[in-house]
Amino acid sequence: MMRHCSLIVLSFLMFCFNAVAQNKDILNLTNAFIDTVKSNAYSSANVNWDSVAPIIIKKSCGIKEAKDLLPLFKMVLSDLRDVHSSLQYHETDTSIKEDFMVQLRQMAKMTDADAGLPPKNYQSYMIDKKYAYINIPPVRLEQAKYIDTIGKQLKFLDDNNPQAWIIDLTENSGGANYPMIWHFASLIDVDYSYSDVLNTGEEKKISVVLRPEGEQAKQVYDILELDPKKRPPIKLKNTQVPIVILTSYYTASAAEAFLLHFKGQKNVITVGQKTYGLTSTNQYYEIGNNFSLDLTISVLKDRNGKKYKINEGVNPDFLLPFDHSNIKTTNQLLEAVINSKKDYIEKALEIISKPSNFSL
C-alpha cells in the first residue's frame, strides 16, 4: 500500500512540476508538512494518507503564496480529530527560530493587561482555621510573578498548619504546566508521576520539578526567569494530610497535567466534573521559514496505568452534579463554575470530614 501511495504522490508531483514549475518551494513546504504530521502525530493512523496526501499535493500546485497553504494544512489537522494540535503562519523574513526567540523575549516582558487578558484570580485562605484553600488560575504570561505569588500563598497557608488542602482547578483552562506545579512538589509523594505515551507505545515519566533538557530549553526557561536554582520550590511541612482537588469541565490542558501529577496518590481525592479532555502533549515543529506546528505526539497515562485517549477528560472520584444544558460558550461555562464555587467547597469539606475517604 505504501508503494501504491508513493506512486500516486509521484504522479501528482510530476503533474505539478509540468504545470507550475515555479512553485517548487510550495511543493517542498507541502511535502515537509505531510511528512511531519504523518511521522509524528499521535493520531496519524486516523488519516488515510494514501488518499489525503495526493489530494493535498495536487491542490497545492495552484498555490503561489505560502500563506495560502494554511487552509490545506488545517484540513489535514482536522482529519486527526485532535483538538490539541494547532498550526501557525509566520510573516517573517527571518527564520522561525529567530522569530520565536524574539517573540519569547517580548512575551517575557508582557503583562496580562498588555495582552488584554483578565487579571489572574489569586485566592487563598483558611477555612474554619483548619483547612487550606487555594485557587490555581491559568497562566500564560507573567510566569515568574505567578510562581512567586503562588509560593507566598502556599507558605502562608502552610504556616497555619492546615489539617487538609483544597486545591481548586475549576477555573483553570491551562497554559504553562511547570509554573502551576512549581511549589507543589513537596505535596506529591513521587519524583516522577504520570507518563507521556507515544503511538509506538514508548513511555516517558514526567518529573514533578522542572528539569530542562537541551540548550534551547535552558535558553527558553532562562528568558522566562524559570530557574529552579533561583526560584527553588518551597518545602511544605503539612504534607501527610487529606488533599482534595476540585475540577470542572473548564479544567483543561496544563491544568489536567497538574491534576495527573496527583492522580492516584493515596491521600488525594478529586471532586467536581470530568475535565475538558486535552490530556495530551504537544511538540513544536518548524515547517520551512513560514509555518510552525504544535502537534500532539503523545497522550498521558496516570500512575495507576490509566491511559487517556485523545480528547478524553479525567473523571473525578466524587461527581458533583452540574447543569450544562443552558451553557453555550466557554465564558458562560466559566461564569457558571464561579457561581457554583460554594457547592464545590462544601462538597470538599463534606469529604474531608470523613477520614475513611482517605488512605493516610
TrEMBL record:
Keyword Signal: yes
Cleavable signal peptide: 1-21
Any one GO CC term of the record: outer membrane-bounded periplasmic space
Keyword Signal among record annotations: yes
GO BP, sorted A to Z: proteolysis; signal transduction
Cited SUPFAM superfamilies: ClpP/crotonase
Domain Tail specific protease, first and last residues per copy: 103-321
InterPro entries the UniProt entry points to: ClpP/crotonase-like_dom_sf (IPR029045), Tail-specific_protease (IPR005151)
PANTHER family according to UniProt: CARBOXY-TERMINAL PROCESSING PROTEASE CTPA, TAIL-SPECIFIC PROTEASE
Protein name per Swiss-Prot or TrEMBL: Peptidase S41-like protein
Gene source species: Sphingobacterium detergens
